[in-house]
Amino acid sequence: MRGGKSAKWVVGAIVVALSATACGGGSKDDDSSNSASKEKGKPAGYISMDNGEPQKPLIPADTNESVGSNVIRSLFTQLLTFDKDGGIVYTNAESVTSKDSKTWTVKLKSGWKFHDGTPVTAESYVKAWNWYSNVDNKMQNSFWFSDIAGYSDVHPEKGAAKTETMKGLKVVDDTTFTIELTGPVPYFEYKLGYQTFAPLPEAFYKDPKAFGQSPIGNGPYIFEKWDHKKLIQVKANPDYQGPNKAKNKGILFKNYATIEAAYQDLLSGNLDLVKQVGPQDLPKYKSDLGDRVIDEAWAGLQFLTPVFYSKTFKGVDPKVVQGLSMAIDRKTITDKVLNGTRKPATSFTPPGVAGHQELDTDVFTFDPAKAKKLVADNGGIPGNKMWIQYNADGGHKEWVTAVCESIRNSTGVDCVPDAKPDFQTDLEARDAKQVKSAYRGGWVADYPVNVNFMKELFATGAEANTGFFSDKEVDAAFKKGDNAESLDASVKGYQEAEKLLLEKMPSIPLWEYKTNGGYSKSVDNVAIDFHGDYVLTDVTVK
Amino acid sequence: MGRYVARRLLQMIPVFIGSTLLVFSMMYALPGDPVRALAGEQAVDPAQIAAMKKDLGLDLPLWHQYWNYLTGLLQGDFGTQIASGQPVADIIADAFPITARLTIFAFAFTVVVGISMGVFAGLKADSLRDRALLILTLLLISVPSFVLAFLGRYLFAFELGWVAPNVSGDPSWDELILPAVVLGSLSLAYVARLTRTSVAENLRSDYMRTAVAKGLPRRRIIGVHLLRNSMIPVVTFLGTDLGALMGGAVVTEGIFNVKGVGWSVFGALKQREGATVVGIVTLIVVVYLVASLLVDLLYAVLDPRIRYA
Which residue, A160, A400, B190, B281, is the most exposed by fewest CB within 10 angstroms? Predict the structure, then answer.
């Protein structure tokens, strides 16, 4: 009986396969009976948040997206950090001083240690910065060190590094080092708060790759484990001496497939913090969560940026762009289309950055009649048609359509949304100068000074200036701000430049970002910082 | 039969190469540069990007990249993810067991419940219970799986509180029941209908009459004579369905937060992680190939007239 024999064989195979997989990952009972929340696998006193999977290994200078940054900021402490209003708070530094904004002296607090017990010294900073900026190490954020004298030796525009060290960095003693810049940068101190400027222990240089998987920092939390695509666990550092010592026992950075799934877990008590509530839950999240809702603006702006090489905007009169700005009904769109998740912009800088000012202008006010007149009287738009490029994978379609509708109705200019399938394709078109008329831009503060929203975006040849705006007066105004004697003077200089931008209109600010999140019943003291991220060290467990 | 199996296994090689080449070139053709995208809206250093691409071999022509990939694969190297620097093999090893478990649950559910329902209804065609089954399965076919998923979660997680709304990162078997039922319910409807029709038809056939006339016990008539012959179309469907369950679980996995293959391949596709997509798709292709081989072998078991030399 041939059939009978093979039947047994097939059934046998299925049974083996079933038992191998079904029983493989069975029981695990490390649950936390003494924790207030019923969350599975969470040690007592820990908090959990929806964070996603970091794109890259956890090396401070190789991460610029927020998911990885959240973890890195918990593990590493830089020289200084910022309070809610963008003010400087010294963490690892005792002081950062400069007489001429060109040569800076950093004094470290003594007695700090990395999580492996080795001391944090001036050398830990200098050596790390040299390594980060070296072109051969291909760090994403290496350009952050480009202000330092000697950067072009370790990171030449072409080819390999000429030397290992930048001549601008000098170790004076164990707790002191100096930074010499190529020119005065009054707001340089602010940049030092970016996570990229974190120090590294000696252990890093032995095996950077392994370090990226289990980093050793000097921060308020100690790395525990990284279960890829599932969670990252860190525990509070009991010996931490900085002002931002953890008030909870640790954090679980969890990864959910969708923000909706995370929200469901928040509701059922399986998750403590959700950074952003999805569109489908936004209409009801306030009634679901009551006073456990976070609804606050932070230092990020959405722009509608014309590209100045395009047929539409080549040699355009700035008044036309002003007209387009006035044609957009920001209030209705933020309320209705964006469900109140954004706040209409009133200037080129968001609140929460030093130097944010209210511009005395009606350019950001919806006024269809004036908008139409401004566009028509100043040469209009070639072909009376424009496109707005956006990435279809980021939830922008609805508001871009609404903005276009608003422009069309107010000015009669035909406006067409131009979708790119995803962010990669969108960026590629921007780099390749293939944007048809304008694109959706977004900018989040790297350091809370108004400079960050102008120089990086609108200076001629600036790396993030993908609208290719170029204006001599604006460049001169920026330079004046950069050459100012003090930080205050520099911020004021940029405030003047901002007024000039209003006349030149390199871009149309649309709205400020808001964090629309919430937290569970088992945690307290939840607040956001200027990035819109939770201040995790302050969160307490009930 | 041994020779037949050997021949089929050999045939898998060109199919395997063809499908990987196809997926590989599709990933290559997609616009969007994964290395450039790492920088986002921040500044980019073109020299650095070029250097990274060179390291990853992404600057080579397509055929060369494919050749490198294939030779790597032969040495057991699935490649490395661009952003995270993690070996693709690790990612697959994380995701596959979960999806395999989910698929096997869904498959077992489909087979056991679907076939029983089909036999139950088919034995008394056009009766009330037959009509009830037809209506129920019609409902299952027409309701999209995400609707079922949401309904199921609302009912069992929020109203009754029997299960957690999401599957955790390292799921125990009971967490997967609800997603598996949702995932399997569409196939369940097809299997039930196929079985029902097949059973109803075969009831009228000559050999059934002979079996009854021989005075065989009812259990044997239905269990061996009727079912064995009625299973051929069902098995064909189930074979291809196994692969479809595995690849098509994106929606279900997304809703229930299952960190499986569907979710991984979706994420990788969004980030243009070519090696990951090709690796996972290749494995799904292998599952398909093996499943269809099993189906063909089962034919011989079910119907002795079918012989493979």
Answer: A160
**Closest residue on chain A to B99 (Cα):** A21
ipTM value > 0.85: no
Backbone angles phi, psi at A103, to 5 degrees: -110, 120
Indicate if B102 and B64 belong to the same structural domain. Answer: no
**Crossing angle for the helix pair A318-326 and A397-411, nearest 10 degrees?**
110
Average pLDDT of the segment spanning A30-35: 38
Question: How does residue A317 score in pLDDT terms, banded at 50, 70 and 90?
Answer: very high
Is residue A192 included in any domain, yes or no? yes
Say what the pLDDT of residue A423 is: 84
Whether the CB of B132 is below 8 Å from some CB of chain A: the reply is no
Q: What is the pLDDT of residue B302?
A: 81
pLDDT digits (tens, 9 = 90+) for A444-487: 888 899 999 999 899 998 878 989 999 999 999 999 998 888 88
Query: Could you identify the residue written with the tokens 């004021």?
Result: A492
Q: Identify the three-state secondary structure at position A226.
A: strand
SS3 track for A469-528: CCCHHHHHHHHHHHCCCCHHHHHHHHHHHHHHHHHHCCCEEEEEEEEEEEECCCEECCCE
Residue B308 token pair: 């493979």
| CA distance to partner chain A, nearest, from residue B159 (Å) | 11
For residues A183 and A324, state if they share a domain. no
Question: What chain B residue is nearest to A253 in terms of C-alpha separation?
Answer: B169
Binding-face residues of A in 383-412 toward B, CB within 8 A: 393
Report CB contact under 8 Å: A56, B83.
yes
Report, as an integer, the average pLDDT of A153-171: 90
Q: How many CB pairs under 8 A join A and B?
A: 177
Does A272 map to a domain? no
Nearest-angstrom CA–CA distance, B202 and B275:
49
Find the CATH number of the domain harbouring B161: 1.10.3720.10
**Cβ separation of B42 and A463 shorter than 8 Å?**
yes
Residue B82 counted as domain residue:
no
Cα–Cα distance between B257 and A40 in angstroms, integer? 15
Please tell me the total count of domains within chain A. Answer: 2
B53 in any annotated domain: yes
**Structural domain count, chain B:** 2
Query: Closest partner residue to A21 among B51, B100, B256, by Cβ?
Result: B100
CA distance A237 to A235: 6
Contacts of residue B172 in chain A, CB cutoff 8 Å?
25-28
What would the two tokens of residue A13 be? 């195979």
Residue A468 DSSP label? -
- A506 within a domain of the structure (yes/no): yes
Residues of chain B with pLDDT under 70: 41-44, 248, 308-309
Question: What residues in A contact B39, CB-CB < 8 Å?
Answer: 64, 140
Q: How far apart are CA A352 and CA A347, in angstroms?
A: 13
CB A386 within 8 A of CB A438: yes
Print the domain residue range for B26.
2-74
* Helix, strand or coil, per DSSP, at residue A106: strand
The domain of A132 spans 75-212
- To 5 degrees, how large is the angle CA B138–CA B242–CA B284? 135
pLDDT band with cut points at 50, 70 and 90 for residue A3: very low
Same domain, B16 and B101: no
Which residues lie below 8 Å from residue B102, measured CB to CB, with a gap of 6+? B176, B179, B180, B183, B249, B253, B258, B260
